Amino acid sequence: MSEKIQQNEHRPPPPPPPRQPPRGAGEREATAAPPRNIFVAWLVVLGMITAMLFMLNSGGLQGNVQEITAAEFDACVTNRSITKCEILCDAAKGIASISGERLDGKKKVRFRLNRRYSDALDKQLLDNGVPVKFPSTFWSEVLFQALPIVLFIGLLYFIFMRTAKSAGMGAMNFGKSRARMLSQDKQKVTFANVAGIKEAMEEVEEIISFLKAPQKFQKLGGRIPKGVLLLGPPGTGKTLLAKSIAGEAGVPFFSISGSDFIEMFVGVGASRVRDMFEQGKKHAPCIIFIDEIDAVGRSRFTGIGGGHDEREQTLNALLVEMDGFETSDGVIIIAATNRPDVLDPALLRPGRFDRTIVIDLPTLDGREEILRLHAKKLTLGPNADLRRIARGTPGFSGADLANLLNEAALLAARQDKAAVEMNDLEEARDKVLWGRERRSRAMDDKERRITAWHESGHALVQVLLEHTEPVHKVTIIPRGMALGATMSLPEKDVLNKTRSQLRDELVVLMGGRIAEKLHTGDISTGARMDIRMASRIARHMVCEYGMSDDLGAQAFGENQELMFLGREVSRTQNYSEETARRIDSDVTGLLHEAFARADKLINDHRRQLEQVVERLLDVETMDGRDVDDLVKHGRVLTEDERKAQEKTEDGERKTEDGTPQAEDGQTVGQSDSAAPLPPVVPLPPVPPSGGAV
């Protein structure tokens, strides 16, 4: 599935008129939003307090203040040169702080002194007509006494509120939903942004019709599914599909993660569930999308991982809310997960999640659509073949394909190219699959030759066998953890495999070790990944696919695997020791048979193998067509010869139903290798030597 923009065949419906948000929604967002410039505000407050303390302590910020003695003060009083006088008395100490202004010639000078206050001083000032003021000290005393307490409480409040809001536990929104409403005005997502999942889009079309015109369904007594569960591997576009539904219908879209409901306090998640549904009802018709619902919808009392009261209460609240509100409210719940095996059965029953939509990995055509969708933002060169890239990326999700094209664009930009060329796309695909080329990993001539023989053995056997896919590329340049790789390019998607295909896969896997041994007379650790893969395929053929001649169509062992993730949790042995011995015997027989077939093929075609090895040592990376030419024709054909050969083969395929006869009486196109080759899943890189994996 893809997340880029493409033109849709149908014009999207006009968006509905803007809806006024309900009263309180903006206030809730404002309350939940953290305060801005809080650091600057606290700096201003501290600056004001500092200035106030300085003014109280120094009598203000007015010019210079002259310290004078008591004798000088008495002389000024006697001379009547004091024009202003303020006295602050400390009753506890009996000290008076005297400040004011006096005349020094024609200039006024501020002065200050501390002296003991007495009645004689008071009488002296009165007799000489000095204007005296006794300012009140009440507010200054209150400030000095209350300021430390206020600062301490303010500091505690600041620390608590910042900590609480950083953890999302504000006092006003502790139990509020964290669902975020997607703005359709900024970037509207529709079906034009989706590719590769036609069946899934068809299933959700009636949901869009209901959101646009609910009366059409209600007048006939029908109801839309209350909940839709999207299942699929990671990266297939479950979230994008939900957004496109909201974009096509033109309704508000709320998005929330399943982990947002879970907190350390019991009851918080349940409160958030209730608040989320309240928001949905106020904005109805709307869509509420819960991503990774397995975080909150895990089965209760399973005995795996212990109990969790908070999660179970949250799940109970979700079950009640989904079963409690009516579909006439226009609220549809869409949830996504790649772990449906752990969901509670009560959550999946009709009336809650009525419909399940499986979004699987895209097919060959789907991958090509996704690549073309993503490539609209790229400048592609004339030789860029997206169909060929789609063939070489089986098992890729939409996110993987987007990453592939992005890597190709980065590679082209790094080399200052004007457009993304085919070799950039190929290199990006190989980098995503197997890792980047490691040309700095030095190998001596002996290791390079062993690697070349190993990879040439894989390629030779793959070309000679009937039930294998075409070779795409062979390289002896270290890539990722491997010293070399033999890459395949399937012609179409493989839905199942025959026993002949699996047996040929085993032969291809054995070809590397046999070629190695033919060259060196010894074996190395480079084939350990080949042996591991061959052993796994052979055991699956016997234990799961029923392809054993001795044991027949039976399955042995019960595997518990994670759906869509492909990881085995446990295996139960439900057969006897004698049966286990027979299973091991059949597995060993399959591997020995594959080894013998590969050994015969390589020894019978040693001359072609040596040609492939020498050319591989010369160019380091060979195209699959070059390998095919060397094996079948003994030389690399020119492009004109290849086009002529392809034209002949196309003509034979078109007339295959008519079975035209050649001049010698033989049927054209019918030979041991003329049958169509059903492709299989491409082989991963084969670590050829040195024990590198």
Textual characterization of the structure:
The chain is of the alpha/beta class and 693 residues long. The chain is built from 23 helices and 16 strands. It has helices at 25-32, 38-58, 70-79, 119-127, 138-166, 198-203, 205-212, 215-218, 238-249, 268-282, 309-324, 345-348, 364-375, 386-391, 398-414, 422-434, 445-464, 499-520, 528-543, 577-604, 606-619, 624-633, 639-654; strands at residues 65-67, 82-90, 95-104, 107-116, 132-133, 180-182, 227-231, 253-257, 286-291, 331-337, 355-358, 471-475, 485-488, 558-562, 567-572, 621-623. The strands form 4 sheets. The protein has a 6-stranded mixed sheet. A 5-stranded mixed sheet has the order 1-4-3-2-5, with helices on one face. Helix 21 packs antiparallel against helix 22 (624-633).
